Amino acid sequence: MNSDSTAPVHYDRMLVVLHWVLALGLISQLGLGVWMEDIPKDPPGLRAQWFNLHKSIGICLGLLILWRLGWRLTHSVPLPPKDLSSFQNALATLNHRLLYVCMLVMPISGFAGSNFSQYPVKFFGLVLPKLWEPWPEAKEILSEVHEITGVVTMVLIGLHLLAALWHQFVKRDGLLKRMGWSR
Ligand code: HEM
Ligand code: HEM
């Protein structure tokens, strides 16, 4: 926990870069996930190609998320804004924590679920070793977890974006700069 005198004013630049790379990556990955579900199974191959790309990108995002979490837990971050009520700050903290939970559940459920399917996971063409035997029931449950958490993530990002817009255009308190590059 930071004390007032030691707390930084901005997120450090590593967290800033990871925040924006992951924001772009996760929003694109959510879109790709929803979109690829509608690709017809015929002709064969096209659907699998997009699924494999989604899995490869998802693994990269998962590694970036682990890096971000590790960095976040070992570095100081700004204190909650003083001019907000404690209720507003609690809501923001809850939203951020839930986003972190979703950021973990999405790649883990996708990766574990795919390992329970009959197909091997390919990482940009490289066939990864199968972690365990196919188990359709486990695959089914993890697919559900992946889908539901995907929807929850979209809702949380929507609320997060609305909050950012409110700070920028209604409250005009420059909060966005805390997640910016300039110092
Ligand atoms: C879409 C545009 C986005 C904007 C404008 C935005 C803006 C911001 C801002 C200004 C902060 C700092 C809040 C503060 O100072 O208290 C922040 C924090 C955060 N953002 Fe975003 N964000 C966006 C997208 C995302 C996405 C897609 C995710 C993840 C799924 C995300 C996850 C987070 C998390 C977890 C924090 C808390 C950081 C921490 O304490 O470690 N953001 N965001
Ligand atoms: C950060 C990570 C990820 C995000 C945000 C994400 C998002 C999504 C979304 C929104 C869907 C559509 C859900 C539906 O309508 O069923 C989806 C489907 C899918 N994703 Fe991901 N995904 C991620 C990582 C992964 C990873 C790492 C894998 C596997 C290695 C994976 C494998 C799949 C598969 C196979 C589907 C098709 C539906 C299913 O069988 O579950 N995803 N993903």
Topology:
Layout lengths: L12 H24 L9 H29 L11 H31 L5 E2 L2 E2 L8 H36 L12
Antiparallel strand pairs: 1-2
The structure holds protoporphyrin IX containing FE (2 copies).
Q: Could you give a quick summary of the protein structure above?
A:
The chain has 183 residues and is mainly α. Helix content is 66%, strand content 2%.
Q: How would you portray this structure in words?
A:
This protein has a single domain, classed as Up-down Bundle (Fumarate Reductase Cytochrome B subunit), CATH 1.20.950. The two termini are 22 Å apart. The protein is built from four helices and two strands; from the N terminus they run H-H-H-E-E-H. Helix 1 packs antiparallel against helix 2 (46-74), helix 2 (46-74) packs across helix 3 (86-116) and helix 3 runs antiparallel to helix 4 (136-171). Strand 1 and strand 2 (126-127) form a beta hairpin. It is elongated. Helices cover 66% and strands 2% of the residues. The longest helix has 36 residues, at 136-171. The protein has a two-stranded antiparallel sheet. The chain is mainly alpha-helical and 183 residues long. The structure holds protoporphyrin IX containing FE (2 copies). The site of one protoporphyrin IX containing FE has 20 residues, from helix 1, helix 3 and helix 4.
